[in-house]
Amino acid sequence: MLYRTQLRNAVVAALQAANTLAGQKVYAPRDLPVTPPGMPLILVQTPLERKQGRGPLGAPQFLTTATVAINARVSGSSAGQVESLLDTICDQIESAVLTDYTVLRMVQQVLAVETEIEVTGQQREHLGEAWLRFDFEYPEVFEPPINQQLIDVHGAVSVTVGTATAQPVEFDIPIPQE
């Protein structure tokens, strides 16, 4: 499983455990339309991941930044009520994610948190939506699989005494095969 998927699942679990206004209505990506009776709710996605190389030697190593985007949706009878609900749920989301031990131990650091809020009025019902984007940084190393059997070890030893260096002694150690 991709690490960003594991991170997203940990954020979903943290939000479900936090008892936000959405309660247990915290979902990983879904396409179902949401109507006011189903609100408030929280949707969690990982729409962006960036890998920055850490050098040319050895196995590919990266400093990865995954963006976990959290979409909170609420409804209410007035724009003021919806904005107040959004403020509350945003505060609850930040607190849940930034204090959850499972999430924090999965990352090296939280690089940024960005929040965007929008309130719209449709007839008598007002809808509100907030996007919170958390940029989490963590190291990744992609070790190539070992698909060749080790059959022997070759080595060389040289000894330096004072300024004189003796000729290296080379050796081979065969590895018994089963």
Can you give a write-up of this model?
The chain is an alpha+beta fold and 178 residues long. Helices cover 22% and strands 44% of the residues. It is built from three helices and nine strands; from the N terminus they run H-E-E-E-H-H-E-E-E-E-E-E. It has a five-stranded mixed sheet with strand order 1-2-3-5-4, covered by helices on one side. A hairpin with a 2-residue loop joins strand 4 (109-122) and strand 5 (125-141). The two termini are 33 Å apart. The mean pLDDT is 89.
Q: What are the SSEs and their pairings?
A:
Blueprint: H1 3-17, E1 26-27, E2 41-53, E3 61-76, H2 79-98, H3 101-105, E4 109-122, E5 125-141, E6 152-157, E7 160-161, E8 164-165, E9 169-174
List keywords for this structure.
22% helix, alpha+beta, elongated, 178 residues, single chain, 3 helices
Number of distinct helices: 3
Major β-sheet strand ordering:
1-2-3-5-4
Largest sheet: 5 strands, mixed
Order of helices and strands: HEEEHHEEEEEE
- What fraction, in percent, of the residue positions are helical? 10-25%
In terms of DSSP E residues, the strand content is 35-45%
**Low-confidence spans: pLDDT under 50, at least 5 residues?**
none
Assembly of the depicted chains: single chain
Radius of gyration: 27 Å
Terminus-to-terminus distance: 33 Å
Supply the helix-strand structural class.
Answer: alpha+beta
Q: Count the E strands.
A: 9
Question: Which overall shape is indicated by the principal axes computed on the Cα atoms?
Answer: elongated
Q: How confident overall, as mean pLDDT?
A: 89
